[in-house]
Amino acid sequence: MTTNKLLIAIGISIAAFSCKNSTEKLPNEFADATIHFSIRYPANWKFDSTNYSMREELAGGGDDFQEKIVLGYEKMPAKLDAKTYATSMATTYKLLDSQFKQLAMQPFVQKDFDAYELQFTTLQNNMQYKSAAYVLIKDSFAFTIQCNATDKTFEAHHPIFKEIINSAKYIQ
Question: Residue 115: is its pLDDT beyond 70?
Answer without folding.
Answer: yes
